[in-house]
Amino acid sequence: MSPQVMSLKSKLKLTGFLCFHLLLIGVVITWGAMRFQSWEQQKQLPEIRLTPLSVTPQYDRPEIVSDEDLVKVLNRLRPKFRGKSPQTNHVDHALRFWGIEAEFDDPRSLSGIEMRDLLLDHRRFGDAWGEKTDPLLVHNQFGVRVRVQEGLETSSHEDHTLATLAEVGTASDYPVVTSEGETNLSAMIEEAMRSFSLNQVEYEWSAIVFALYINSARDWMTTEGQNINFDLISERIMRQPPVKGVCYGNHRLHALVILLRVDEQTPILTKAGREKIVKYLQGITSVLVKNQSEEGFWDKNWDAQPLDLESEKKFAPDSRRVLATGHAMEWWSLAPPEVLPPDETLQKAGHWLVETIQQMPESEIQSSYTFLSHAGRALALWRGKFPFQVDLSSQSVEAL
User: Fold this and answer.
1) Residue 251 near residue 284 (C-beta atoms within 8 A)
2) Terminus of the chain with fewer CB atoms < 10 Å: N or C?
């Protein structure tokens, strides 16, 4: 073979080698670009609804609470917080209880709009708490958040205030006034999504915020690089021992009910994910039915474990029992029929709540208001109404 032919073959081999590697590099670059695009898409937050979804009452059970008893209970639980330094956890519980639409003849009671302004308008917050008090709303790299567990002027739980605003139907473009200027509620919702972690201590209220505001069932990525969806959130909730967590575990159960009810309106769970939640709540209901007291209440140890009161010394027994019983009755009032207990269980619990709340001294109602707000809301929901829809005028305010 001539040197010329050998040289040509070598050049062809070299050309082929270079073409192959250029093609390989091109494939790698294309794959990398696609992966980067996918990563960037995952980092993008899902679309936020303008108006949050509403989870409405679906039962009307006068055998649980009569019209007359409901009016008596609700009148005792009006939000009498007008004045200086109203505790933020009392205000956001009262707003969730009564709704934005609530108005009262009693001059001591704040309207729903006034309560919302205390939470979302730094000027109103400053009027109530004084200029020297640190703001309730603060900015960080993810958006705007509510200060949590830093004093009576702050929220009691992570995303609790935001979940309240979601449950009472606050639009995502609603104006929010911070000490640094004006924004809107979307800045708070986005902060909650970006900073969320499956490993955070409290995630119950975050789940409610996401379920009511997010207009998509797709995964999204947190700043920690976690892919989040509603199946994962529900599995995290169900992984914790039943009575562990805030209010003896009931807020996690309420969050699961919200996920189920939202899934009925727009699919956010897989079929298997929904079935797991239903089965889990049916199991919880069975435990509660088995351990209901003869009088109708539950206590901190609704799972029948030994009653440890070391951390409950500041609560009177009835307040503690109202906490456990009112919360259970509230999440049942919104739950699908397949997870409800027998009628007798509900009637006994409802009657016990009515009698106990009517007999409570005013000082105990004020100190236990957050617990009682759940009980009062539950009783109204069992009559197919939100509390603001109940006519309170049939009982004289002066007589209370």
Assistant:
1) no
2) N
pTM for this structure? 0.87
Distance CA 103, CA 223 (A): 41
pLDDT at residue 396, rounded to an integer:
44
Options 1.10.287, 3.80.10, 3.30.1380, 1.50.10; CATH for 56-392 is 1.50.10
In a 13 Å sphere around the CA of 14, the CA atoms on its Cβ side amount to 6
Does the pLDDT at position 32 exceed 70?
Answer: no
The tens digit of pLDDT for each residue in 235-293 reads: 999 998 888 888 999 999 999 999 999 999 999 999 999 999 999 999 999 999 999 99
> pLDDT value at position 76?
97
Return the pLDDT at 18.
64
How far does CA 333 lie from the centroid of its chain?
Answer: 16
| Calpha distance 215→50 (Å, rounded) | 9
CA nearest to 205, candidates 255, 270, 137, 240: 255
Structure tokens at 339: 């997870």
Q: Enumerate the domain spans of the chain.
A: 56-392
If phi > 0 it is left, if psi is from -120 to 50 it is alpha, else beta; for residue 199 that is: alpha
Q: Where are the beta strands (DSSP E) in the chain?
A: 137-140, 143-146, 175-178, 181-184, 220-221, 227-228
